[in-house]
Amino acid sequence: MTAGTLVSQARGDGLDFAAAGSWTAEHARTLEPLINAATRHKSPVRRVAIDVARVDHIDTYGAWLIERALRTWNSQGYETRIIGLPESYRGLFDKVSAGTHKMTPMPRQGNAIVTTLESVGRTMTLVGADVILLAQMLGALVIAFLRVLVRPHTFRFTSMVNQLERVGWNAVPIILLITLLIGAILAQQGIFHFRRFGADIYVVDMVGVLVLRELGVVIVCIMVAGRSGSSYTAELGSMKMREEIDALRTMGFDPVEVLILPRILALVIAVPILTFLGSMAALYGGGLVSWLYGGINPAVFISRLRDAISIESFEVGMIKAPFMAVIIGLVACVEGLQVQGSAESLGTKTTDSVVKSIFLVIVLDGAFAIFFASIGI
Amino acid sequence: MANGHADAVIKVRDLVVDFLSHRVLNGVSLDLLHGEILGFVGASGAGKSTLARTIIGLLPKRAGLIEVLGVDIDKADDGLKRAIDRRWGILFQQGALFSSLTVGKNIEFPIREYLRLSNRLTTEIAIAKLEMVGLSPDVYRDYPSELSGGMIKRVALARALALDPEILFLDEPTSGLDPISAGEFDQLILTLQETLGISVFMVTHDLDSLHRVCDRIAVLGEGKILEIGTMDKMLTSQHPWLKAYFHGARAHADWHVAVKG
After folding, report:
1. Hey, what CATH class is B34-63+77-260 in?
2. Alpha-carbon distance A271 to A265, whole Å?
3. In this predicted model, which residue has the larger pLDDT, B249 or B143?
4. Inter-chain contact B131–A68, Cβ cutoff 8 Å?
5. Which of A324, A340, B130, B212 has the most CB atoms around its CB within 10 Å?
6. Are A32 and B122 in contact (CB under 8 A)?
7. Distance (Å, whole) CA B236 – CA B159
8. φ and ψ at residue B54, rounded to 5 degrees
9. Averaged pLDDT, B159-176
10. 0.90 cut: is pTM over it?
């Protein structure tokens, strides 16, 4: 197929453009400049025509380009017409020329400072709305929990055990591996720097206190937020998308009681267990590196550890775990229920869920640190 | 077209398709003629969508021949396959609009990919397509999630038509639409088919659509084409499934009157 052409010729008191060749999508790239040149044509005549009799093939692209030329000329005050349009293309031309091709203009944007302030303001209200949603979810959860306490047979025990396997049992290997490595790295760094003062042995104090009080629980919670929080959000989100949650509601079930309570309770049980296992693995890793890299005999390590840490350090770490679990579960479920129709929104909400729950875990850890400091533990 | 079209734009011969160990299509032969609207019916699970998806190339086939616009798909290299992709448009059942793009960008997507036109012309064509499917140009800036079911189908049709294809696949175009919208959509397909001269392959369950829109109807059952022909031929067929389908509770009395008269 040869590309379309457009040749102008003056005829009496008017100007004729003779179109030929193929006016189709694949040639639109070369046809557009022809049309642009034709509409810029300056001549004294008042009448313009396009002759399409010798065109082989026209599709929407060609028809629109010709229509565009006609519209431009019309707006410049020319009289226009199409000559030689084959009957088979009349429908296409009618269809293309019937459109208005006008969009209502975009609303004007304000200046940069105002727009920035506006977006900051909007974000802040969103943060406020998030806090309210979290509080609402916590309230709904407590009510569902109390209802279940009154009528224990309504509790979804199977569902909770299933979740417990997914977020607890299945998470054990990866949690053990990560915390073992963290403990080992901590000990290695400690030994490397303490050795200069001849204070290698204090690495046991450092690893013990850090792991039991802070790192054990925080690392485990970050892992759980990334692993289980995100899957809660994605699960609930896709159930929301497919109207499963609405279906539950219409059957008279409370989604919080059926879906969310078992999930969050599973987390509340699993996270302390994982924290305990993780802390032990971290101490083990620390001990291993102290022995192999620092030359601290395991027996020495254990007796030093016994002096360095108290049961309080352990308690401080463990008491935080269930609170962290509730925060992770709440954020994951709130975000999951906020998913709208699109696949993109599911992705955004899952990301939001992980980011927000890790952030809140660290904030909560800070709050606990202040609390324990002020009561003197 | 300059390369001269044979009468059939799509030619399927003895097509066999397996789904795991289950044989879905067992020797399907079918022609889509130039400029016709071929309706495609069959019981749920009979393999209507499977056939459409196999022709499009989304599913692998076990045996048989598929020829699209005179090209044997098995022997075509990547360049040729891409050239064919450019010459058909597909309307998926749920629309399959890209949810992260606006309506306008959805329609422009294939145009930008294949034609590399100026931004101005790309936008103008997208708006022209929107108007051709009966939507206002203002829809251009909306996201698919803001549209109703009928509008999504229309936008999806506009996207399928973006490159002015020669073949249009419609997978249940009227499912999920109310009777008024479905009727309008049928009319739209008819007008577009007339003005653009497209050949249409339409999988449907909608008896009204079959009656109003289709030139020929093919019936799929037991992995084969049971019957192919005009609506009149379907109505007079003695095959038990066809009798149940076309003379069942959902059939309209006036069609039969028309046949007898």
Report:
1. alpha beta
2. 10
3. B143
4. no
5. A324
6. no
7. 38
8. -70, -40
9. 85
10. no
